[in-house]
């Protein structure tokens, strides 16, 4: 199982230089990917821009949106162009993770309705694939640049419903769980595999998950401070999210072992703070 680390693009107070330093140090520490999470109505850096900055100062590590809230990007042809641009700039290292999101205010701020978002999402996915395949648009020709990877950037989708699993099988290369226990992962992964087989897809989808972490002497306070704010809209459930964060080397090791046993291909540890020592502490915990 690959072990990735999140970029602290949503951690309040993170300076731009910190994002660059974090990307370079994470690559040097041997992590498999830099992941991003994001919302519109929150004071964080937009994911595609943050990962483009990271691409400029790294050369090996993958760059993964985990996940981008696709319906908010209402021009899918432009999103396809942005994704292909980042994939080419990074030398094929970009992985486009997409999902629907769970906050009404992100949609309200965009002038969008949550009604019908699943249908719109599928329409967007189809358009992304057509653009990356080089479909010509009348006299204007195809939308470039052509991706490095045949068929476009690696595409992974989030979601925990049967409809989500069907979309993975129809459009994507893999699936990601945005949070939950290893047992929840194993159960959902089985649903993804079943949809994949039903669709007649060869091989198997790549399966990923996220897990929050905070390490060091103030780990619990750091994790609670960030997660209770970021997930405050969930009410009492925010306490469960915060409580699930790995706040010790032992918890990190337990998560790695459990997710690996559950069939996870890549586990991305998402930071709850932006101190660069968090990278070193995580690397030590998984060594």
TrEMBL record:
Matching InterPro entries: Luciferase-like_dom, Luciferase-like_sf, SsuD_RutA_monooxygenase
SUPFAM superfamilies: Bacterial luciferase-like
Keywords of this entry: Flavoprotein, FMN, Monooxygenase, Oxidoreductase
Superkingdom per UniProt: Bacteria
Keyword Transmembrane: no
Origin species: Streptomyces justiciae
Protein's recorded name: LLM class flavin-dependent oxidoreductase
Keyword Flavoprotein: yes
Domain Luciferase-like: 8-237
Pfam families attached to this UniProt entry: Bac_luciferase
């Amino acid at each position: 199982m690959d072990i990735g680390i999140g970029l602290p693009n949503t951690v309040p107070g993170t300076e731009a230089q910190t994002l660059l330093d974090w990307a370079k140090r994470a690559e040097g520490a041997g992590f498999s990917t830099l992941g991003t999470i994001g919302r519109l109505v929150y004071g964080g850096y937009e994911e595609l821009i943050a990962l483009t900055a990271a691409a400029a100062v790294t050369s090996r590590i993958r760059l993964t949106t985990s996940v981008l809230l696709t319906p908010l990007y209402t021009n899918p042809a432009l999103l396809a162009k942005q994704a292909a641009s980042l994939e080419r700039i990074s030398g094929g290292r970009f992985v486009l993770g997409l999902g629907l999101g769970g906050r009404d205010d992100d949609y309200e701020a965009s002038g969008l309705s949550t009604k019908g978002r699943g249908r719109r999402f599928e329409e967007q996915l189809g358009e992304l694939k057509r653009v990356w395949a080089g479909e010509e648009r009348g006299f204007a020709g195809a939308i470039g640049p052509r991706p490095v990877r045949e068929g476009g950037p690696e595409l992974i989708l989030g979601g925990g419903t049967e409809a989500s699993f069907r979309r993975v099988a129809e459009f994507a290369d893999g699936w990601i769980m945005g949070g939950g226990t290893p047992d929840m992962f194993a159960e959902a992964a089985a649903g993804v595999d079943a949809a994949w087989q039903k669709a007649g897809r060869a091989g198997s989808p790549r399966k990923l998950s996220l897990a929050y972490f905070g390490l060091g002497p103030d780990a619990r306070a750091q994790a609670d401070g960030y997660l209770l704010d970021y997930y405050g809209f969930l009410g009492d459930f925010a306490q469960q999210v915060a409580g699930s964060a790995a706040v010790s080397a032992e918890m990190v090791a337990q998560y790695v072992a459990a997710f690996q046993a559950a069939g996870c291909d890549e586990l991305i540890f998402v930071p709850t703070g932006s101190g660069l020592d968090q990278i070193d502490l995580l690397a030590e915990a998984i060594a």
